[in-house]
Amino acid sequence: MPRVITGEFKGAVLFAPKGDNTRPTTDKVKEALFSMIQTRVYEAKVLDIFSGTGQIGIEAVSRGASRAVLVEKAGQAAGIIRKNLEKIRAEHDERISLMKMPYSSALAKLGESGERFDIIFMDPPYKIAHESAMQIADLINEYDLLEDDGIVIVEHASDTDFDTSVINLQFNRSCCYGLSVLTFFCKEL
Predict the structure, then answer these.
(1) Average pLDDT of 20-27?
(2) Residue 36 belongs to some domain of the structure
(3) Which of 26, 120, 129, 189 is the most buried (most CB within 10 A)?
(4) Has residue 3 been placed in a domain?
Protein backbone atom coordinates (compact mmCIF):
# COMPACT_ATOMS: atom_id res chain seq x y z
CA MET A 1 0.00 0.00 0.00
CA PRO A 2 1.37 3.45 -0.85
CA ARG A 3 1.97 5.85 1.99
CA VAL A 4 2.60 9.58 2.37
CA ILE A 5 6.29 9.95 3.21
CA THR A 6 6.47 13.37 4.84
CA GLY A 7 4.76 16.68 5.46
CA GLU A 8 1.19 17.54 6.38
CA PHE A 9 -0.24 14.08 5.63
CA LYS A 10 2.85 12.12 6.76
CA GLY A 11 2.28 8.47 7.54
CA ALA A 12 -1.12 8.15 5.87
CA VAL A 13 -1.42 4.73 4.26
CA LEU A 14 -3.34 5.17 1.01
CA PHE A 15 -5.71 2.79 -0.69
CA ALA A 16 -4.69 1.15 -3.98
CA PRO A 17 -6.96 -0.59 -6.48
CA LYS A 18 -6.96 -4.37 -6.52
CA GLY A 19 -5.80 -6.14 -9.66
CA ASP A 20 -3.25 -5.28 -12.32
CA ASN A 21 -4.99 -2.31 -13.96
CA THR A 22 -3.22 0.23 -11.72
CA ARG A 23 0.44 0.01 -10.74
CA PRO A 24 1.17 2.57 -8.02
CA THR A 25 4.62 4.13 -7.96
CA THR A 26 6.65 2.26 -5.35
CA ASP A 27 7.66 4.06 -2.18
CA LYS A 28 11.33 3.64 -3.20
CA VAL A 29 10.78 5.40 -6.54
CA LYS A 30 8.55 8.05 -4.91
CA GLU A 31 11.20 8.79 -2.26
CA ALA A 32 13.86 9.12 -4.96
CA LEU A 33 11.61 11.37 -7.04
CA PHE A 34 10.84 13.74 -4.19
CA SER A 35 14.48 13.75 -3.12
CA MET A 36 15.39 15.01 -6.60
CA ILE A 37 12.64 17.64 -6.84
CA GLN A 38 12.37 18.66 -3.18
CA THR A 39 13.53 22.24 -3.79
CA ARG A 40 10.90 22.68 -6.52
CA VAL A 41 7.85 21.40 -4.65
CA TYR A 42 7.09 24.17 -2.15
CA GLU A 43 4.38 26.47 -3.60
CA ALA A 44 4.52 24.57 -6.91
CA LYS A 45 1.55 23.79 -9.11
CA VAL A 46 1.66 20.05 -9.88
CA LEU A 47 -0.12 18.09 -12.60
CA ASP A 48 -0.28 14.32 -12.04
CA ILE A 49 -1.41 12.48 -15.20
CA PHE A 50 -2.45 8.81 -14.95
CA SER A 51 -2.82 9.58 -11.27
CA GLY A 52 -3.87 6.06 -10.19
CA THR A 53 -4.06 6.38 -6.41
CA GLY A 54 -3.39 10.12 -6.35
CA GLN A 55 -0.30 9.55 -4.25
CA ILE A 56 2.11 11.78 -6.21
CA GLY A 57 -0.18 14.81 -6.08
CA ILE A 58 -1.08 14.10 -2.45
CA GLU A 59 2.62 13.81 -1.53
CA ALA A 60 3.35 17.09 -3.33
CA VAL A 61 0.62 18.96 -1.42
CA SER A 62 1.75 17.30 1.81
CA ARG A 63 5.21 18.79 1.12
CA GLY A 64 3.86 22.29 0.46
CA ALA A 65 2.77 22.42 -3.17
CA SER A 66 0.13 25.10 -3.64
CA ARG A 67 -1.95 22.96 -5.99
CA ALA A 68 -2.18 19.47 -7.44
CA VAL A 69 -4.43 18.45 -10.30
CA LEU A 70 -4.94 14.69 -10.54
CA VAL A 71 -5.96 13.35 -13.94
CA GLU A 72 -7.41 9.84 -14.06
CA LYS A 73 -9.95 8.42 -16.51
CA ALA A 74 -10.41 4.93 -15.01
CA GLY A 75 -13.50 4.78 -12.81
CA GLN A 76 -12.06 2.38 -10.23
CA ALA A 77 -8.85 4.43 -9.84
CA ALA A 78 -10.79 7.71 -9.60
CA GLY A 79 -12.88 6.12 -6.85
CA ILE A 80 -9.69 5.15 -5.01
CA ILE A 81 -8.40 8.73 -5.34
CA ARG A 82 -11.63 10.01 -3.78
CA LYS A 83 -11.26 7.50 -0.92
CA ASN A 84 -7.65 8.60 -0.39
CA LEU A 85 -8.65 12.27 -0.29
CA GLU A 86 -11.31 11.39 2.29
CA LYS A 87 -8.79 9.38 4.30
CA ILE A 88 -6.46 12.38 4.63
CA ARG A 89 -9.47 14.70 5.12
CA ALA A 90 -8.69 16.60 1.91
CA GLU A 91 -11.84 15.80 -0.10
CA HIS A 92 -12.84 19.49 0.12
CA ASP A 93 -9.29 20.87 0.06
CA GLU A 94 -9.04 23.44 -2.73
CA ARG A 95 -5.37 22.57 -3.21
CA ILE A 96 -6.22 19.16 -4.70
CA SER A 97 -8.61 18.53 -7.58
CA LEU A 98 -9.50 15.41 -9.53
CA MET A 99 -10.31 15.46 -13.23
CA LYS A 100 -11.97 12.14 -14.10
CA MET A 101 -11.47 12.15 -17.85
CA PRO A 102 -8.96 11.16 -20.53
CA TYR A 103 -5.73 13.15 -20.39
CA SER A 104 -6.38 14.73 -23.79
CA SER A 105 -9.64 16.27 -22.55
CA ALA A 106 -8.10 17.31 -19.23
CA LEU A 107 -5.10 19.00 -20.85
CA ALA A 108 -7.33 20.82 -23.33
CA LYS A 109 -9.56 22.05 -20.50
CA LEU A 110 -6.58 23.15 -18.39
CA GLY A 111 -4.99 24.87 -21.38
CA GLU A 112 -8.18 26.70 -22.31
CA SER A 113 -8.41 28.03 -18.75
CA GLY A 114 -4.80 29.32 -18.90
CA GLU A 115 -3.35 26.89 -16.34
CA ARG A 116 0.43 26.41 -16.16
CA PHE A 117 2.37 23.96 -14.01
CA ASP A 118 5.78 23.85 -12.39
CA ILE A 119 5.88 20.05 -12.23
CA ILE A 120 4.10 17.66 -14.56
CA PHE A 121 4.35 14.00 -13.61
CA MET A 122 3.00 11.12 -15.68
CA ASP A 123 2.97 7.44 -14.88
CA PRO A 124 1.18 5.80 -17.81
CA PRO A 125 0.77 2.05 -18.10
CA TYR A 126 4.27 0.91 -18.99
CA LYS A 127 3.19 -0.72 -22.27
CA ILE A 128 1.98 2.65 -23.62
CA ALA A 129 4.41 4.93 -21.76
CA HIS A 130 6.43 6.04 -24.79
CA GLU A 131 3.43 6.70 -27.01
CA SER A 132 1.61 8.51 -24.19
CA ALA A 133 4.66 10.63 -23.36
CA MET A 134 4.95 11.73 -27.00
CA GLN A 135 1.26 12.68 -27.20
CA ILE A 136 1.25 14.44 -23.82
CA ALA A 137 4.42 16.39 -24.65
CA ASP A 138 2.73 17.68 -27.81
CA LEU A 139 -0.34 18.72 -25.79
CA ILE A 140 1.80 20.38 -23.11
CA ASN A 141 3.40 22.49 -25.83
CA GLU A 142 0.15 23.13 -27.71
CA TYR A 143 -1.63 24.42 -24.60
CA ASP A 144 1.50 26.01 -23.04
CA LEU A 145 0.93 24.09 -19.79
CA LEU A 146 4.53 24.07 -18.53
CA GLU A 147 6.12 27.05 -16.80
CA ASP A 148 9.33 28.20 -18.48
CA ASP A 149 11.44 26.72 -15.68
CA GLY A 150 9.10 23.75 -15.13
CA ILE A 151 9.87 20.06 -15.40
CA VAL A 152 8.10 17.04 -16.84
CA ILE A 153 8.80 13.63 -15.34
CA VAL A 154 7.81 10.34 -16.99
CA GLU A 155 7.86 7.07 -15.10
CA HIS A 156 8.38 4.12 -17.45
CA ALA A 157 9.76 0.58 -17.52
CA SER A 158 13.48 -0.06 -17.53
CA ASP A 159 13.15 -3.06 -19.84
CA THR A 160 11.48 -1.29 -22.79
CA ASP A 161 12.78 1.22 -25.30
CA PHE A 162 12.07 4.84 -24.46
CA ASP A 163 13.42 7.11 -27.20
CA THR A 164 13.71 10.58 -25.67
CA SER A 165 14.74 12.16 -28.99
CA VAL A 166 11.20 11.92 -30.42
CA ILE A 167 9.50 13.52 -27.40
CA ASN A 168 8.77 17.18 -28.04
CA LEU A 169 10.54 18.42 -24.89
CA GLN A 170 14.19 18.92 -23.93
CA PHE A 171 15.62 15.73 -22.39
CA ASN A 172 17.39 16.35 -19.07
CA ARG A 173 18.24 12.98 -17.47
CA SER A 174 17.03 9.48 -16.64
CA CYS A 175 17.40 7.65 -13.33
CA CYS A 176 16.79 3.90 -13.06
CA TYR A 177 15.31 2.21 -9.97
CA GLY A 178 15.05 -1.51 -10.68
CA LEU A 179 12.08 -2.02 -13.01
CA SER A 180 11.22 1.70 -13.11
CA VAL A 181 12.90 4.69 -14.73
CA LEU A 182 12.23 8.36 -14.07
CA THR A 183 12.99 10.47 -17.15
CA PHE A 184 13.12 14.24 -16.76
CA PHE A 185 12.39 16.83 -19.42
CA CYS A 186 12.16 20.60 -19.52
CA LYS A 187 10.74 23.10 -21.96
CA GLU A 188 12.67 23.72 -25.16
CA LEU A 189 13.49 27.41 -25.02
Answers:
(1) 72
(2) yes
(3) 120
(4) no
